[in-house]
Amino acid sequence: MSMHRLSGCPSCAEPLEEGDRFCGVCGYAVSAPPPAASVDNPTIPIPPAPQAPPAPPAAAPPAPAAAGGYGTPAPGVSHAAAEPAPGWGSAASAAPTLVDDPAAWAVAAPAEAEPEPEPEPRQGPAGATYVASGHANPYGAGTPPEGTPWGPAEHPYAGDAEASQARYDMPGGGTPPDVSGHSAGENPYGVPQPPAAAPEGGRTCIACRAGHVDTDGYCEHCGHAQPRERDHLEEELGSVAAVSDRGLRHHRNEDSFAVAATALPDGSAATVAIVCDGVSSASRPDEASAAAAGAANEALLEALPRGAHPQEAMHEAILAAAAAVNALAPETPGAQNAPACTLVGAVVSGGLLTIGWVGDSRAYWVPDDRAALPRRLTEDDSWAAQMVAAGLMGEAEAYADVRAHAITGWLGADAYDLEPHTATFKPDHPGVVVVCTDGLWNYAESAREMAQVLPADAATRPLHSAQVLVGHALDGGGHDNVTVAIVPFATHPEQEPGPDAEPGPAAGPE
Question: How many CB atoms lie within 10 A of CB 83?
Fold first, then answer.
């Protein structure tokens, strides 16, 4: 084999000048021996090719780039294992290392290049002969100092038409065309991508503040689950307000409420508040509570304006709520627990206060004058209440039992004989009615405790007062969903005395 000086870089075919020891573009060591040929175990040993003698010393060569310069692979390193270009992340998709640890990347053996035809020589601007490599002469009138930026007319990759295509691994090279075979939006290397802006009218993630929320309620960028609409609800309508919260332990809010106002035949106003608590051990309790609250509210708004007595209207409203929950039951009996919920409602109309309930959701009366005694207006449909009513256990002992909150009355297809409870009162002093689920009264069980937590200005700021009560339950642990409605009651001394109101279900103030 004859020895001769290389006229082009063996790695990138860039033209070389006399005395070059390194390629000025890719940094290849020109004086290094070529990679050894693969061993094919020949029958007769073939002596290895003699090594090329070292070139005479010359001027200090330009320092090679860390990985071949501008993303060009260093000698012996394939493009698949080379350092990634800025902003592209790791190119070695199978390497189990961090993108910022190039020393740990796997180095693949270079593939043996196919033999190429002898390139045609051409004249360079300085009179020397260079190998036609597909690039224009990068040196111009001479080799520029290291770090000198290329001018627009002398860029090493701005040669003929074939070589003038943009280098996308260069800084400022633009966006490469999609030649990877990956579909749009696919990230084959797992490199974090900037979040896409939420489309106009779409929801933005509350966690990353940038990603779009899909129809399932999860952020398409960070995957954060978004709060459901029912996780926290507030509504204020004139003199009545309600707040419902998921609490701190439940994965969804199974409570529901409805507040409304309407006019009676005499022109006076009537205020309605309905609160329902889904039974968690039943199927679809959130749907049951929503159906019951909506049906009871509609029934009251239909009956009161036509002059129905509030207590009669409340009874019919509870039956309508029960029918709405029954309609949610599965077609095959026994296939699953039928949806179920409790209900408590209050109507303030014509100087009367009407309460109706089924289950263990409660209503409390708290006078504006805190020197007067508050009282609980409902009696639970529960195991503990039955034990106390039968005289078998004291109240403290009964409610300390693990069976205390087992309800004995509810709305649902599998309920026992439905017995709606209703009562009408005629307070002689102003106050507010607190209508709530056990998610609140578990943290303020007695009427005195409820009055202590309720703000003094509840009659004039019902929404704020409801928020305070919900916050009290959350501060106490928030073990259950929490829903409360505040209904102010104002006395009307100028009105004629009405029929005697029925006594409340509680024998006296607690």
Answer: 21
